[in-house]
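User: Let's play a game. I give you a shape written as tokens, and you guess the letters that built it. Ready? Here's round one.
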């Protein structure tokens, strides 16, 4: 199995590092293409990769091609790629807002998998939702899924609408968590805690709460009731959030990201 990743930015490199250790690539090194001389020099020192700065040298013989460039770079890239592709290759897009139909049309490709990755893939805790065009076989989809799973977990969805929806939850979601964390950090420091102690309290609180949730079948709502005693400190905090409609604002934010993903897809 020969796998090529086009683009060695944050996402491209993250998935490259994960997939490089996959048994599916046991007989071949993962191929990476990029145009940045500094990145190429750095990557060439990594024995896990074969690194290229010319598509002619790596694209035509790849079985699976991951595209991990910014969406606004895709048109120029597709124009360069199109003459080098063959119908048997599987194109996997890590780009936000670029539809399967747009990729098929611009590359004259049939087998396309569209994904929505997220940032925690960098630490092996990512979640990647994905869906495919009709020409991708079940066996090929299993292979793609196994590669995606090297960076965390993957979720197969039935339509591209769910790709846009997952943008609002998992794709953009880490930023919502960081936003909440930043607010708690600022509150801790205003209460007089040091930078170090604030970070320890906030990060361990998040990690602990997530682990409690993962290791049980209890809903977040039930966990809240277990922490919050009537008339107590936690209930005072929850009451403040409820009165300020925080729940609805968070949902509104998720839908704003979802709607923007749909808009981006329509511009293709």
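Assistant: Ready! My guess for every position:
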């Amino acid at each position: 199995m020969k796998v090529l990743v086009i683009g060695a930015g944050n996402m491209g490199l993250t998935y490259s590092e994960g997939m490089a250790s996959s048994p599916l690539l046991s007989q071949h090194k993962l191929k990476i293409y990029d145009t940045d001389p500094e990145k190429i020099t750095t990557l060439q020192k990594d024995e896990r990769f074969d690194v290229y700065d010319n598509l002619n040298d790596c694209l035509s013989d790849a079985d699976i091609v991951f595209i991990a460039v910014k969406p606004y770079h895709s048109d120029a890239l597709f124009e360069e790629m199109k003459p080098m592709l063959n119908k048997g290759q599987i194109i996997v897009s890590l780009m936000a807002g670029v539809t399967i139909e747009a990729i098929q049309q611009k590359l004259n490709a049939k087998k396309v998998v569209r994904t929505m990755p997220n940032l925690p893939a960098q630490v092996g805790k990512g979640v990647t939702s994905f869906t495919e065009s009709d020409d991708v076989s079940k066996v090929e989809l299993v292979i793609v899924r196994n590669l995606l799973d090297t960076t965390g977990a993957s979720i197969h969805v039935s339509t591209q609408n769910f790709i846009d929806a997952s943008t609002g939850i998992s794709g953009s979601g880490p930023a919502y968590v960081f936003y909440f964390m930043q607010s708690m950090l600022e509150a801790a420091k205003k209460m007089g805690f040091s930078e170090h102690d604030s970070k320890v309290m906030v990060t361990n609180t998040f990690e602990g709460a997530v682990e409690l949730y993962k290791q049980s079948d209890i809903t977040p709502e039930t966990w809240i009731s277990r922490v919050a005693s009537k008339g107590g400190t936690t209930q005072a905090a929850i009451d403040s959030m409820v009165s300020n409609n925080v729940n609805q604002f968070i949902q509104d934010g998720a839908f704003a990201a979802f709607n923007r993903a749909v808009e981006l897809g329509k511009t293709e």
